[in-house]
Sequence to fold (201 residues):
Amino acid sequence: MTSEEILEWYEKACAFHTKRAPGLAIGIAMVDMCRARLGPVKEKLNAISESPACLCDVIQLMTGCTMGNRYVKSYGEIGRFALTLYDRADGRGVRAYIDLDKISASKTPELHKFFLRQRSEAVKAGGEERLKSGDLVVKEFLAVRDQIIALQDVFIEKFGKSEMLPAALCKSCHESFLCHNKAEECASCSGKLKYYRPVNG
Ligand SMILES: [Zn+2]
Fold:
């Protein structure tokens, strides 16, 4: 993918993400390099994001692996700026990550600060300064992208079609729910995942 193509995808990704974030441009190049190295897949392309932020949106936009079709999983608790694309049929995959040792603090200072989360207070505060810094991060990244993105051939430990749980009727709310371990109540009624309370009552 050329730098111009990355920038075109970047505009689409910013629209989807509803804000400008330089990590999107970096993720676009990572997805492109992973896909090129992986080559054709036997079955479905699946993906894993190791970051809770930008990468999931880039994967969803570029590959058609979505949260809804369950072809992408987010392991955001790992928290690394890395992603893996793989073949669901055999678990063969390619992982892309950032080689921090290759990022020069003198030649690409804003990119360096971006990855170490050391951008200035004014940038962290948002607004115009943040947008300017973001543009600079993208510009610096495009000049060195092939050197700082590292690829790793991997096998996924657990691959294949993800299991769809059987449906059951919750004995408390009487809604149909996907049933783990023969539970009689949904996770909301059992209190395991109670995320709301009714306004009246
Ligand atoms: Zn229930």
Observations:
- The first strand starts at residue 45 and ends at 49.
- The chain has a mean pLDDT of 95.
- The domain at 3-155 is CATH 3.30.1330.130 (60s Ribosomal Protein L30; Chain: A;).
